[in-house]
Amino acid sequence: MERKLLLFLIIACLSGCTDFEYSPQQTFDSDSPRDLNKKNYERLLQAPVNDTLRFIVCGDSQASQNEVELFVKKANELQGLDLVFLAGDISDFGSLQEMEWLVRDFQNLKAPYFAVIGNHDLLGKGADVFKRMFGDLNYSFSYGGVKFVCHDTNGREYKFNGTVPDVNWLQTELIADGSVSSYIALAHVRPYTADFDPNLSTLYTDILNANPAMLASFYAHDHSFGEYHPNNSRIPFIVATSLGERGFLLVEIINGRLTYERIDY
Amino acid sequence: MSASTTKYIATVFCIIAFSLAASGQKLRFLIPDGAIVQHAGSIGYFSAGIDYDLFKNRKGSLDIMYGMQPHSKGGGFSTLSTKFAIRPFEITAAPWLIIHPVNPGAFLSYTFDDDLSLVHDRDQYIKGYYPLSEALRIHLSFSSEFKFNTSTLLKSGKLKSATLYYEVNTNDIYLTNYVQNTKGLSVTDIFKAGIGIKASF
Predict the structure, then answer these.
(1) A115 near A122, Cβ under 8 Å?
(2) How many domains does chain A have?
(3) pLDDT at B11
(4) Which domain holds residue A79?
(5) For residue A2, what pLDDT is reported?
(6) Confidence at residue B1, expressed as pLDDT on a 0 to 100 scale
(7) Interface test with A, best of B126, B146, B180 (most A CBs within 10 A)
(8) What CATH number did the domain enclosing A150 receive?
(9) How many angstroms separate the CA of residue B147 from the nearest CA in chain A?
(10) B interface test, pick of A1, A17, A21 with most B CB neighbours within 10 Å
(11) CATH architecture of B32-200
(12) Residue A171 above 90 pLDDT?
């Protein structure tokens, strides 16, 4: 009898501590965060602009909640960090719950953070979850004279139908603007790899190189560090390793000159 | 899953239902032992279904549930579930109340939605690229039941009992995350709750 009561207490506690869930496939619940990229941009605008712009590019946080906690601690120790980019694969299966777990940790970052869509985030109802929680799949913003162009390059998820990456959108975003001195591109899958639309790799690379103020383009997906110059590309295509591998890139822009270092934590 | 596949499955269900109805007396065992309504529990905002007793002394049960997840609650789809549970423990708290403190179970849920496929397209992905199905979830569950003996309470002959239950469950996606991250996630992160009422005839 006592054993049964103990079991009963365990299940009662478990039930009391857990949330009600309508469906693992639902795209939001009553307390899901909303429009986080926009809200983080508003936070960024409150920060004073200085000569040095420092930001993190990390990616592939999927199924790595242990490591994400450590990453947040490490990032908060860095001096003068302006913003953080998570370059896709926030989730392993595109579920609301996985993206909420990520936000639970990332909301402890002192610097504003921005999410970019990854191929895993497009599984199931993931695109709808991402759009409501973070915002558009293609978006851009400027800070300190630098324009960040974040976009969807997960061509395989669209059966390589020629629409992803959206080259027309990119061309429009990269039209020279007097208020912008440098451009940075960010996405998940880099060109000339198996999950990038093979018919668009060359055009895409040419579009990024066509803007003389473009400094570099950053990616994740490979789960290893790397720098590439496909077709003798002027700009570097730089890949951050996965958070699961406990690594990220710390990037610095001073007077239009970009440097970066690989950090293991 | 495409609309045509959904229609196909619905048609098959209808055919089976009509065949059963036509078979009549021979299939009396297919007449349900109870009816269930449930809120949450990962099979829809609201779901309803039928219950079959299994084994001697009703130590097990098989439920077939159909759940709705409205647009306003982040859905716009429906879910069909088959739930199995056993009741190893029983506490007779009063002549009219039996408590089943912990009932382990497992269930499958299939969600009908154009964005969700049962298996990933082999033309699009190599085998094993994404290991889990989008539409089909495999769940583990634990429930606690308060069974009110209505035939004693209400002197009603038709309704044998009314059972109030709450249930926690997890699924293959959450478990996959948890086993790799036992520090970053807790057991309460991956278990999700639901409540329901069962009427047994």
Answers:
(1) no
(2) 1
(3) 54
(4) 2-264
(5) 64
(6) 46
(7) B180
(8) 3.60.21.10
(9) 14
(10) A21
(11) Beta Barrel (2.40)
(12) yes
